[in-house]
Design a protein that fits this description.
mainly alpha, three-stranded mixed sheet, two-stranded antiparallel sheet, 7 strands, about 60% helix, nucleus, PRP38, mRNA splicing, spliceosome, mRNA processing
């Protein structure tokens, strides 16, 4: 008798209100200790006090599927079926956040699509933190807006299958609901205006920079057509060319090939070649041995060049 629905209760979704929760979970709730001790003979007035004592939300947990107090109170509300005004006051209550979550969950299960969007969408602006019990018994931090968003979008919440909702777009087209205005629209508009101004400033800077600076394609053509003067200097100053230009054998070879026709010129040329050698060797001792060594070297060089030796 204690687990039966009240006689004056109306059917919800064409069935008994308690049947909105699956039979396996419902039998687990009937066998739980919280249901037997805390939910026995509860009325709508006493239910408010129990809802204010809630510390977290959740479905079933553990290996043997234990129900949470939140789920037990939801089933008790389906059993006694309180008035709609009481549920609306639960939702509008801002002092006790778990009372608000309890009223929102009950309205989502039993209410129509119009009532669900009408009463639950304002709760999307509530960002307070709540505790949620997971299936393994651990606790995580959640938010009221996330909980309400799951009620409006997901198919299952707190291990209970949620009834299907009509799409909001269809309800707007039939003028049952007004288009939803998000609280973030003003912030998004401000961000859009600031981003447009920044884009305009960037475009102005780019255009001014293009006017001042020449195009990179022309610079590339210039570099390709006219090599840099540094490269020319580096080529003219290369050590190999210096050595080639300053090597005495080629000059000596060309001069001596042009001047062997007259013997007088050859003697004069030989005397001119010896003069700088003597000037450069002023610091050395002038002896006959040195002169003979120099003559031998000159004769060896002349022999290589095919010239007559010196006397």
């Amino acid at each position: 008798m204690a687990n039966r629905t009240v006689k004056d209760a109306n059917t919800v979704k064409g069935t008994n209100p308690q049947y909105l929760i699956e039979k396996i979970i419902r039998t687990r709730i009937y066998d739980s200790r919280y249901w037997k001790e805390e939910c026995f003979a509860l009325s709508a007035e006493l239910l408010v006090d129990k809802a204010m004592e809630l510390k977290y939300i959740g479905g079933v947990y553990g290996g043997n599927i234990k129900p949470s107090p939140f789920l037990c109170l939801v089933l008790k509300m389906l059993q006694i079926q309180p008035d709609k005004d009481i549920i609306v006051e639960f939702i509008r209550n801002e002092d006790f956040k778990y009372v608000r979550c309890l009223g929102a969950f009950y309205m989502r299960i039993t209410g129509t699509s119009l009532d669900s969007f009408k009463y639950l969408e304002p709760l999307l602006n509530d960002f307070r933190k709540i505790k949620r019990q997971k299936r393994d018994g651990t606790f995580v931090i959640d938010h009221i807006d996330e909980f309400v968003d799951n009620l409006l979008r997901e198919e299952r919440e707190c291990d209970v299958i949620l009834p299907r909702l009509q799409k909001r777009q269809i309800m707007e087209e039939t003028e049952k609901l007004e288009p939803r205005i998000s609280a973030l629209d003003d912030d998004l508009d401000d961000l859009g205006e600031s981003s447009d101004e920044e884009d305009m400033v960037v475009e102005e800077k780019v255009t001014s920079h293009r006017r001042r600076s020449p195009s990179p394609i022309r610079d590339r053509d210039r570099h390709r057509r006219s090599p840099s003067p540094r490269r020319r200097r580096s080529r003219s100053r290369s050590p190999r060319r210096r050595r080639r230009s300053r090597t005495p054998p080629r000059r000596h070879r060309s001069r001596e090939r042009e001047r062997p026709r007259s013997p007088h010129r050859s003697h004069k040329h030989h005397d001119e070649d010896e003069r700088p050698k003597k000037k450069s060797k002023k610091s050395k001792k002038s002896s006959k041995d040195d002169e003979s060594v120099e003559i031998k070297e000159a004769n060896a060089l002349r022999a290589k060049l095919g010239l007559k030796p010196l006397k």
